[in-house]
């Protein structure tokens, strides 16, 4: 493994453009498709995934939801979550939640969070990245406006993203408790880890 800041591992833009043109799937499922490779996951794949459950053990894969992360450098104007209490237990005890004209009121706590969506565990929609003014399947980038995406929005996949998950313990494979910040994991690392840990990668 290597570090992202190692110059020899930085991709040149022309190489990215070459690979994106060679490997793109635009048109594979017709000109109106907004699902992309999620087309590969159908009823049979979902049934097979469900049949793999043996223990019912749960793994929390979410990132901490607080002001300490996960943003770094405020890329693109993003900020860490801002948590604001709208009502507290103190408000309740001090009677600040009493409804006018009523002797009793419900007591409660309430809060709000302001954050860019990159602050939490999430999937990027096919409308997230553009290439030469186009997004997935050749749709115009201008179809993503102030009110969101008219094409390739994430809600188009709301009943599609169920399947087999793959967990690879890269740190254990590398012989450490955890990886240092900035450690890059490339395709060769993933392939070798899967092989060594007996994990089969499928579509």
Query: How many strand segments?
Result: 6
**Terminal Cα span:** 25 Å
Helix content: 10-25%
How many helical stretches?
5
Look at the structure and give the mean pLDDT.
85
> What structural class is derived from the secondary structure elements?
alpha+beta
Strand order of the largest sheet: 1-6
Order of helices and strands: EHHEHEEEHEH
Q: What is the rounded Rg?
A: 23 Å
Shape: extended
Q: For the report, how would you describe the main beta sheet?
A: 2 strands, antiparallel
Percent of residues in beta strands:
5-15%
- pLDDT under 50 segments (min length 5)? none
Short account of what is shown:
The protein is an alpha+beta fold and 203 residues long. It has helices at residues 13-23, 43-50, 89-93, 170-174, 187-196; strands at 2-3, 82-87, 110-114, 144-145, 148-149, 183-184. A hairpin with a 2-residue loop joins strand 4 and strand 5.
Give keywords:
203 residues; alpha+beta; two-stranded antiparallel sheet; 19% helix; 9% strand; extended
């Amino acid at each position: 493994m290597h570090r992202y800041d190692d110059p020899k591992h930085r991709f040149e833009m022309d190489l990215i453009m070459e690979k994106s043109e060679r490997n793109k799937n635009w048109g594979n499922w017709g000109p109106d498709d907004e699902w992309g490779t999620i087309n590969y996951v159908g009823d049979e794949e979902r049934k097979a995934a469900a049949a793999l459950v043996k223990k019912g053990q749960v793994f929390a894969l979410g990132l901490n939801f607080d002001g300490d992360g996960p943003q770094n450098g405020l890329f693109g104007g993003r900020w860490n979550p801002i948590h604001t209490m709208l009502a507290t237990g103190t408000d309740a005890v001090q009677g600040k939640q009493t409804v006018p004209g009523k002797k009793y009121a419900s007591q409660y706590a309430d809060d709000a969070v302001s954050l860019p969506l990159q602050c939490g565990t999430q999937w990027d929609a096919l409308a997230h990245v553009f290439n030469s003014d186009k997004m997935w399947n050749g749709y115009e980038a201008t179809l993503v406006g102030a009110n969101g995406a008219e094409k390739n929005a994430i809600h188009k996949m709301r009943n599609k993203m169920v399947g087999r998950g793959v967990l690879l313990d890269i740190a254990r494979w590398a012989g450490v408790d955890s990886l240092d910040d900035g450690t890059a994991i490339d395709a060769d690392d993933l392939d070798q880890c899967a092989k060594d840990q007996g994990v089969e990668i499928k579509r």
